[in-house]
Design goal:
five-stranded mixed β-sheet, Immunoglobulin-like, 4 helices, alpha+beta, about 35% helix
Length: about 260
């Protein structure tokens, strides 16, 4: 009994020590859990970065060889590789020599060589009918996901007078992206619709005659639609539907003019 009572008196003295040990152990567990959670978050972040989609599109610039004579043609080729998304973009920078309007040539000292003539390509605007209204547009291109566009510039020396030396060439494209497109109607169908509208607005024409004309024109329109369904149709991008642009820059290639 005496020993038991003695223990009862001693135990309260050690309670603070027990509490400190318990708190230390608990804090260590929490720290380990936070470290594991942080490592898990960092791993997930790293994985997400590694698996994140590549750039909107990529440019790969190349030429047939490295060494050229002073007046020899220097062909340039660019591959525009689209990423994971279908894009509505202007026609001229992905389907014409307009892709090369922002070529940059530098000499061995890193100085930009000025062109003797600019590489230009028209990008005219056009009014296209949609729901009876004229919409201001530019010609568009349906750039499908993972699609690759290959374009050629026949001769860089047509635009740059390169003297013997070493040069580097890069290419940039400001790729605009649009939200919507309009498919231009077949010109014969557009003409039929205009003729039908004139007849419908003719005050001297009876209702029955207008109905007969409407039936006839609709049949003609359906016939042309069926006949031309496999024809490639131009698409147009409403200027007001522009949603933004991406700045694409190619790799750098070296040229030696001998």
């Amino acid at each position: 009994m005496i020993l038991f009572n003695t223990h009862l008196k001693i135990i309260p003295k050690f309670i603070p020590l027990y509490l400190l040990l318990l708190i230390g152990t608990f804090a260590g567990c929490i720290g380990s859990m936070q470290t594991m959670q942080q490592e898990s978050t960092e791993t997930a972040s790293t994985t997400e970065t590694e698996e994140s989609p590549r750039a909107l599109a990529e440019l790969q610039l190349s030429t047939s060889k490295t060494n050229y004579a002073v007046k020899e043609e220097i062909p340039l080729k660019v591959n525009i590789q689209n990423g994971k998304f279908d894009l509505l973009v202007p026609f001229f920078p992905v389907a014409t020599k307009g892709a090369f309007t922002q070529v940059t040539v530098k000499d061995a000292n890193g100085q930009i060589v000025e062109p003797k003539r600019a590489i230009t390509q028209e990008n005219p605007q056009k009014y296209v009918q949609r729901d009876g209204k004229s919409v201001r547009c530019i010609q568009g291109f349906d750039f499908k996901a993972s699609m690759n566009q290959e374009l050629m510039l026949r001769d860089l020396q047509r635009y740059y007078q390169l003297q013997p030396g070493t040069y580097t060439v890069t290419l940039a494209i400001e790729l605009e992206v649009y939200r919507e497109s309009i498919t231009e109607e077949h010109p014969e169908i557009a003409e039929l619709r205009r003729d039908l509208a004139r007849l419908q607005n003719d005050p001297n024409l009876q209702a029955a005659a207008k109905q007969d004309a409407a039936n006839y024109y609709q049949e003609q329109i359906k016939f042309i639609q069926e006949r031309s369904k496999d024809e490639e149709k131009n698409i147009y991008l409403p200027v007001k539907s522009r949603r933004g642009q991406a700045s694409l820059v190619s790799n750098e290639i070296a040229l030696i003019i001998e």
